[in-house]
Amino acid sequence: MDYGSPAVVSVPELFGSELVTWVLVGLLLYWAAVVGLRNAGKLPEYVGTQGPVLTLHTKRGRVLLDRLARPKRFWRAWSNLGVGIALVVMVSMFVFLIRAAMVSLSSPQLVSSPVRQPRNVLVIPGVNDFLPLSATPGIVFGLLVGLVVHEGGHGLLCRVEDIDIDSMGIAMLAVLPVGAFVEPDHESSKAASRGGQTRMFAAGVTNNFAITILAFALLFGPVAGSIAVAPGAAVGGVAPDSPAADAGIEPNDRITAVDGTAVEDNDELANRLEAVEGEQVTVELNGERTVPVDRSVLVTAAMTDGPTGLSVGDEIRAVDGRTIATERGFFDAVGDSERATLTIAPADGGDDIEREVPIGAAVSIAEDGPLEGETGPTDETFVITRFDGERIHSYEALGSLLENSEPDQQVTVAGYFGDERRSYEVTLDAHPQADTGYLGIRPHPGTAGISVDDIGVQLYPAEEYLAVLGGDGESRFGGVADTFLGKIGVVLLLPVIGVTGGGMPFNFAGFTGGIQNFYTTQGALGAFGDGTVFLLANLLFWTGWINIQLGFFNCVPAFPLDGGHILRTSTEAIVSRLPIDATRGMVRVVTTGIGLTMLLSFVLMLFGPQLLAT
């Protein structure tokens, strides 16, 4: 019952254009109030304005910075390390943005991708489609920590390099902290050495990366180790008008028993349902109550324009004229037939229709792969029905066979392009990320691009997410998530992984929004209670996630970001060593050129598909 892709992406529906409109209206009213108070002289002296943003200034804390700055050799060594890291990240960000812009221009079909919508660049819960309001406390905490350590790093290195500080503070958009700042004295900043200035600008991102490592080390270690998956099958979604919906089963419920037999985890649910004969089963929810469920074979996930033409919510009533009511009955009726005639009750309530479709693993053929070498370039979906002599009903079955394959192994691959059956002899390549053979395909999980279920629930991969965070269990990311840096890379994708082709059916935004029901606490930290442990896990998750984002973003080599300042001082250092009469104009040409390139790349990355579509 691993559906691979979401049946319904509900967050954008809840937090769509209407909410964005209200947020913009509220922002304009707030801005008008700020302007009115400023013009009336009602704002305190320590409050400044920059558009709708309030800046709160203070001179407190300078004595503390002077004390912390006393081990100057240590802080200079620390910041020198940060300069090296920042330079590597700057180059990486430059290359990444240019490549992202090129991909955006060459792939106008990505215009519909929710990840590329401009509102999803903003780390604002409720406005960003992937950040639910329930994650707000963790996000605000992580942002505050990130801003404090970032600007604190600048302030600390100012004192290490004997640069005076006029004031420090935080920038607020209404009640949301959107920035922090340290205002160095202009004259003493100009008097500092070029190396001192560079270390000062790099100190903020260095601290952000250090906090990232600390937060994730705590999360992946003792905190995740104190969390376990609760017994039962985790219900992540319920298909509309499905048997589960009619029975009152809701997202975030756990199915803990079927007809009185305990269900320990997601994998057991299919076995328990298959063991029950008849069209009705009794399901226990959360170990508390039982409900009767009348079964029918429902499409719970479907690829767009897939080879079956089925959509989410369609009901399969018969296969080759044989009436079915269970998932097991569906596959039994298909048997070894590579094509089957399905009797379908459309989700829109229309008359039943019949459609002959291939039953197998739906895949897209990757460029320059072994299979493309035989089929030739094509954008058409290929439904693989046989692999090396084995009958294939789903991509999961094909994936298992590929995991046991070897490089240079010769296999026969047969299946359908539309209504036409093709067969190819393929020599597998070495897989670039595993010790197996490589066919050169991009999967569409399920059977022929659809997933079916006889009660209509979509299971939440609670164990896999916990394994990624350092808890017990296995994840589909294999060796990538076995290393500390690999885990960080995967965790950065979790809030959007359900729509980025990561093969997970749901995004993960922390232990919030009701998914706490899928987990329980254990060990020493468990004594503090579920609420405390989940809160700590959320704070660490978002603190690590936001700090690394702040670090990378501030390394973009464009003004007014730290990367732009480091680019200037580094360019000055290089130009001053050249056998030419170096001028500020030369430095300005380099920094302005790179900055404009970065800005243009960023705009094209966000709006390139829309521009091409028009």
From TrEMBL:
SMART domains: PDZ. The keyword Membrane applies. GO terms for biological process: membrane protein intracellular domain proteolysis. The chain crosses the membrane at residues 20-37, 77-98, 130-149, 200-221, 586-607. It holds the Pfam family Peptidase_M50. It is a multi-pass membrane protein. One of its GO terms (cellular component) is membrane. This is Metalloprotease. The lineage of its organism: Archaea, Methanobacteriati, Methanobacteriota, Stenosarchaea group, Halobacteria.
